[in-house]
Amino acid sequence: MRTAILFLILIFSLNVFLMTVDINYIFGSFNVDPILHLFGAFFIAMFFADYLKHMQIGNPGSPRLKRILILISVVVFIGVLWEFSEYLATNFFGNYLYSKYKIICCMGNLDDTISDLMMDTIGAITFVLAFRVPSKTRSRQE
């Protein structure tokens, strides 16, 4: 869980840093946002998989598919909340951030939003495929 939290803090910090500098100067025309969403979703899935395991949410004896769907749903839900926060930040603070700090905040167009949600989903699925989500708790003797 600590690893997931550390990487989530690093990804968030990188996101804030990239908003304050000229991204095109650093990366050229390469768009970093989808990669941040992919890794963010991956580490959110890691965090919640550990949380679900320790809290035994979703009935530890339940089928693996049910636990995987719970995990992916939580990650996608957080991605949707993130998109709502981008929308609200753009509407309430976008002009102020640009006029004061020259930060272009935050929301893209519909294609950007769909791309972000797709990368969130892919990040969660990548975690599920990379690490086995347990279907039931293991005994202490193993």
Keywords:
about 140 residues, mainly alpha
Q: Can you characterise this structure?
A:
- The protein is mainly α.
- The chain has one domain (2-130).
- Helix content is 75%, strand content 0%.
- It contains 5 helices and no strands.
- α3 packs across α5 (110-130) and α4 crosses α5.
- It is elongated.
- The model is unreliable at 137-142 (pLDDT under 50).
* Number of contiguous helices: 5
Biggest sheet architecture: none
Helix and strand succession?
HHHHH
Helicity level = over 70%
Given the C-alpha coordinates, what overall shape results? elongated
Uncertain residue segments:
137-142
Tell me the number of structural domains. Answer: 1
Q: Can you give the mean pLDDT? A: 80
Note the topology:
Layout: H1 2-20, H2 23-27, H3 33-55, H4 64-101, H5 110-130
Helix pairs in contact: 1-3, 3-4, 3-5, 4-5
In short:
The chain has 142 residues and is mainly α. The protein is built from 5 helices and no strands.
